[in-house]
Amino acid sequence: MVNITQMLAEHSSQLAEIEKLCFSTPWSEKQILDELENPLAAYFVALDGDVVAGYIGSQTVLGEACVMNVAVHPNYRGRGVSTLLMQALVDHCKATECTLLTLEVRESNEPALGLYRSFGFEVLGKRRNYYTEPKEDALIMTLLFKEEHQ
Length: 150
Fold this sequence. Notes:
Layout: E1 3-6, H1 12-22, H2 29-36, E2 41-48, E3 51-61, E4 64-72, H3 81-95, E5 100-106, H4 110-118, E6 122-131, E7 136-144
Parallel strand pairs: 4-5
Antiparallel strand pairs: 1-2, 2-3, 3-4, 5-7, 6-7
Helix pairs in contact: 1-2
């Protein structure tokens, strides 16, 4: 059973390993730890016992949140971990009265595009040659939150 909780420093080494498995330009363990000190950041991990199955994080400025990273260990893909992580972040954004949540995603990343669309994200733009290794455009996707708190 996977549980979602806030990221702690003790998760950083496993997160750094997941980064290496998932991304061509992975974040270092130091970069991950630096996010814990960032007052604009919110990070959540999916735990299977003591094993980190994946994580998601954002930074929020003036009520606008941006997904910084989301990654699931290859051994845990296809088990709904990314959905649980995204739900935790969406819930956090709603609880902190964000007006929107935005992200960039590789144009070819069909599994991620499907996940984001299932939450109501819409493509609002494109960043040409945003990614390197390999070079690829990024789609800018945004989820607008209704202003229920007004």
